[in-house]
Amino acid sequence: MKCTKNERTEALRKVQQLNFAMIELGLYLNNQPECEKALDLYDKVKCMHADARERFEREFGPLNYEGINTKKDGWSWINEPWPWEGED
Fold first, then answer.
1. Within 13 A of 15's CA, how many CA atoms are on the CB side?
2. Which end of the chain is more exposed for a tag (fewer CB within 10 A), N or C?
C-alpha cells in the first residue's frame, strides 16, 4: 500500500515536533540538570523521536545521510523529494 503525501507530511511533522521537544528539554536541563522529571521526560521524548524517525525513514526514505542504507539501497538520498522540499 502506497502512502499519501498527507501521511508523509504528518509523519515528518511528528519527527519535527519531537525533535523540537528534545531541544527545548535540553535547554531546560542546561539550567536545571538535576530535575528528575525533566530527565525522565527527555528520555521518553528521545525514545519517541527515535521511533518516529525510524518509522519515517522506513516508509519514506532517509531524513539525512545517517538514514541511508547504502548496502541495501545505494545512494538513495536523491531518489525521493527531500524532507524540506514542499509538497506538490
1. 20
2. N
